[in-house]
Amino acid sequence: MKRIADKKRKDFLRNCSVEDIDSEIEKARSRYSTLRQQNEVERQRQLKENLQKLARIRALDAEIASLHEKAKDFDKQSSEAETNRGTVARWLDLKPSGWLLLRMQADACRREIDDKVKEKANISCTNTDAESFSKQLIADEANEIETLKYHKAVKLASREKKQREEANLMKLKAAAASAMGKTRDHANTIRSQIKKSEHCPYCGDILQTADCHLDHIYPVAKGGHSTPTNMVFVCARCNMKKKDMTLNQFIDLYKMNRNRVWEQLQALGKDY
Fold first, then answer.
1. To the nearest 5 percent, what fractions of the chain are helix, strand and coil?
2. How many Å apart are CA 183 and CA 177, to the nearest integer?
3. For 80-99, how does the pLDDT look when each residue is reduced to its tens digit (9 = 90+)?
4. Average confidence (pLDDT) per 10 residues, the chain, 272 residues
5. Whether the Cβ atoms of residue 247 and residue 202 lie closer than 8 Å to each other
6. What are the residues whose beta carbons fall under 8 Å from the beta carbon of 102, sequence distance 6 or more?
7. Which of 83, 167, 202, 256, by CA, is between 20 and 30 Å from 111?
8. Taking a C-beta distance cutoff of 8 angstroms, is the pair 187, 60 a contact?
9. Do residues 18 and 155 make contact, with C-beta atoms less than 8 angstroms apart?
């Protein structure tokens, strides 16, 4: 079963997207946080339990010490009573057999001491280390998060490489179209790849579908290519005004807000 689970996991990591990995990272972080909280609750519970055990151990120590004193006292009285059997009744008001009763009481104290020592030993044996609760599970989740981050970085690098290759291919096609005098024809073929914003990036007016032109930021007349990063949808009025001017010439001539125009183009991923 473990082998099957490992194979499914490898297949998932091989075929999933970056977004899927992000989702798995969030799940792992949630599990990690839950385990840490459970660990803290258990740690507090065990700490309270250990304090109670410590108090019981101290109480047992006191009881054992008291019983030792009692047993010692009974032994002393028993020894004296046995030695002075003839006069024991006179000064202890005991029958001649009273020394045996004292010996039995001393033995009873020792048996009780043994019971309490055993109880104390059992308490010590069950005193667990609260810090180790769920330690391995928490470590496993932390490793899972790091593993997922690694696979995410690999996939992002692969995606960026693919995007660079596609961008280079687009530039090569654009250069070929420019050399063949078909730059504008090539622009129409990649029109669907150009992202359209709600507002004209030049003047800021709302872009209407019927009144939307595709402009070369760096003009074709000056060697600009038909690539997604050099083409942007603008309003017809700005396109007619700009004509074959460069972006800076257009901004200076019509006194536009240069920073706002740059921010709009940058948000669309354009070169300018």
1. 75, 5, 20
2. 5
3. 766 665 554 444 454 545 66
4. 57 77 85 82 80 87 90 82 57 56 85 89 60 67 82 81 71 55 59 85 88 88 82 92 92 92 90 74
5. no
6. 74, 75, 77, 78, 81
7. 83
8. no
9. yes
